Amino acid sequence: MSENKKPRRPLPPPPPPMRRKPSKKEMKKLARRHKKNISGAKRYKNYLERDKYKAYLQGKIDEAELKKLLEREEQLYDGEESSAASRMEFGKELDDSENPYLLAEKHSKNEHRRSVILRSALTSFLCLASAVGLNFLSFHFPFTPSIIKIDFSAFPELLAGLAVNPIAGVAVIIVKSLLCYLIRPASIPSIPNKLILDTLFMLLTVLFFRLLVNSKSAVKRQGKEIKEKDYSASGIVLSGLAGSFVTALISLITLHRVYFPLLFRLFGDKGYSEEAIFRNYLSAFNGVLRLLPFLKKLIPTLSSLFMGTVMFNLPLNMFKYFVCAAAAAVIFTPVYEFIHKE
Question: Does pTM surpass 0.70?
Answer without folding.
Answer: no
